[in-house]
From TrEMBL:
Signal peptide: none annotated. Pfam families: Patatin. This is PNPLA domain-containing protein. Keywords: Hydrolase, Lipid degradation, Lipid metabolism. The lineage of its organism: Bacteria, Pseudomonadati, Lentisphaerota, Lentisphaeria, Victivallales. GO terms for molecular function: hydrolase activity. Residues 8-170 form the PNPLA domain. One of its GO terms (biological process) is lipid catabolic process. A motif (DGA/G) lies at residues 157-159. The keyword Chaperone does not apply. The active site is at S41, D157. A motif (GXSXG) lies at residues 39-43. The keyword ATP-binding does not apply. InterPro entries: Acyl_Trfase/lysoPLipase, NTE, PNPLA_dom.
């Protein structure tokens, strides 16, 4: 049986959409043909779109042609209510992202892409076949985006419990190669003061914890695993980087790593 190439993409909002796009461009240029994907949060969206046939270059075109405000629209009433302590379950509407998934996702990707989601009622983590709905559920950061209802159950961001959806240890040897695409860190900044800022910071803290665990477990030392995490770069969860320079930053960094692996 032919061994497959797996790509694992974690979350990170707009930051990871740009970062993973740059890394995928480097993989595309090196002739790496990905057979299967797992993704969490924004990584689930990138995985689903790339598996649907969008190249890294086409992903960049989509990013440049789509203002972030069209992907995530503020719910002004909810944000105003939250300032007065009124409980609300989300502050942004992500229907723009959902429309892109509906337009661009190939139904066949459900056989190639698995995404992490968290069941809201008991915070159970699980993996699902990729569909527009499960991808949206995987990216539903608590308090920032609304939960997604699927078959009577509500689901939220897969990154709550499983930010880096790596395969089981027993499955590692079944892959020719595994590429783990980790979101870059932002440059240092002041501590957040708003509710949105605190929710985003909690999201990043989860990313940091799982990233540290990944390295502590020695994934980067395995012969058939390449971990790619570009260095810090000025970037945001809910907006594109200035002049989309994060894409180039990630592409150049990944190209050097991939070149060293394929020589």
């Amino acid at each position: 049986m032919k061994k497959t190439i797996l790509t694992v993409i974690n979350g990170g909002g707009c930051r990871q959409i740009e970062c993973a796009t740059g890394v995928l461009q480097a993989l595309d240029a090196a002739g790496v043909r990905i057979d299967r994907y797992t993704g969490s949060s924004a990584g689930a969206a990138v995985a689903a779109l790339h598996a649907s046939g969008m190249t890294g270059a086409e992903l960049e075109t989509m990013i440049r042609e789509t203002p972030a405000r069209e992907l995530f629209r503020p719910c002004w009433i909810h944000q105003a209510l939250s300032l007065f302590g009124v409980p609300v379950d989300h502050l942004f509407d992500a229907s723009g992202m959902y429309r892109i998934l509906l337009d661009c996702m190939d139904s066949a990707v459900r056989d190639r892409v698995r995404v992490a989601v968290t069941r809201r009622r008991d915070y159970a983590s699980m993996m699902c076949d990729a569909t527009p709905s499960t991808v949206m559920a995987s990216a539903a950061i608590p308090e920032v985006f609304p939960s997604v209802e699927i078959r009577g159950e509500k689901y939220i961001d897969g990154g709550v419990k499983n930010m880096i959806p790596t395969p089981r240890i027993s499955e590692i040897g079944g892959y020719e190669h595994i590429y783990i695409l980790l979101c870059n860190d932002d440059v240092s900044g002041p501590a957040p003061r708003t509710r949105i800022g605190r929710a985003i910071q909690a999201f990043y803290n989860t990313m940091d914890r799982e990233t540290c665990q990944l390295y502590e477990d020695g994934w980067h030392l395995l012969p058939n695993v390449t971990v790619i995490q570009p260095p810090p770069f000025p970037s945001s969860l809910l907006d594109w980087s200035e002049d989309y320079k994060l894409i180039e930053h990630a592409r150049n960094y990944a190209a050097e790593i991939v070149k060293g692996k394929t020589m």
